Amino acid sequence: MRNFDFSPLYRSAIGFDRLAHLFNEAQRTEATPSYPPYNIELVNEDQYRISMAVAGFDRTEIEIESERDVLKVVGRKTKPELQGTFLHRGIASRDFEHSFRLADHVKVVGAKMDNGLLNIELQREIPEAHKPRRILIDGEPLRTVGTQDQVQSQLQAA
Fold first, then answer.
1. Which residues contact residue 55 at a Cβ distance below 8 angstroms, ignoring those fewer than 6 apart?
2. DSSP secondary structure code for residue 45 in this structure
3. What residues are paired with 53 via a beta bridge?
4. pTM score of the predicted model
5. Which neighbouring-strand residues pair with 101?
6. pLDDT score, position 26
7. CB atoms within 10 A of CB 123
8. In the chain, which stretches have pLDDT less than 50?
9. Rounded distance, CA 35 to CA 56, Å?
10. How far is 51 from 146, CA to CA, in rounded Å?
11. What pLDDT, on the 0 to 100 scale, is given for residue 153?
12. pLDDT tens digits along 125-139
């Protein structure tokens, strides 16, 4: 794989250092974890779901932590008191740690475990200050843009 030098981007762009940092992270040749398998699903326009196959893990053996823009899922399997003799061991029971980079304003709203699947629900909550606003001419106060009907009624009221 080719490595790209992003240092010119640092010199000529102001405020995009986070984007350049993400590019640098994406270039790393570290092995991406493949255990446990997971899906990332777009449920609605602003809702996401991460489903992880955590068969054999109990709720008490899994920790979910969200800090700033990173979601970390850690599984620590407790060792059973009695070890059986296995003829075939196909169900993995090793520890794992998985990190997901979250976009701005994406928050974890819940998690539940069902039939060996850990489902983590995510929601994008755009603050009111970041939503588009309609600016009316002649000194009218700023108003948040809503549906097309709301915009038409605002214009007719003015």
1. 91, 116
2. T
3. 117
4. 0.64
5. 70
6. 64
7. 15
8. none
9. 13
10. 33
11. 65
12. 888 877 787 777 776
- What letter would DSSP give residue 2? -
- Give which of 73, 112, 77 is closest to 91, Cα–Cα: 77
How open is the CA angle 108-109-112, to the nearest 5 degrees? Answer: 100
- Cα of first residue to Cα of last residue in the chain, in angstroms, is 59
Sign of the Cα torsion 101, 107, 111, 116 reads: negative
Q: Given this model, what pLDDT does residue 104 score?
A: 84
Closest CA to 128 of 148, 151, 105: 105
Closest by CA to 77, choosing from 65, 64, 61, is: 61
Token pair 């009221």 in the structure block, residue: 157
The per-residue pLDDT for 151 is 56
Secondary structure of residue 150 in the 3-state scheme: helix
And the tokens for 78?
């407790």
SS3 65: strand
Residue type, 143: R
For the chain, counts of helices (H) and of strands (E): 3, 9
Point out which residues pair with 75 in neighbouring strands. Answer: 62, 96
55: nearest Cα among 96, 120, 118, 116: 116
Kindly tell me the burial class for residue 48, based on how many C-beta atoms sit within 10 Å of its own C-beta (0-12, 13-18, 19 or more): buried
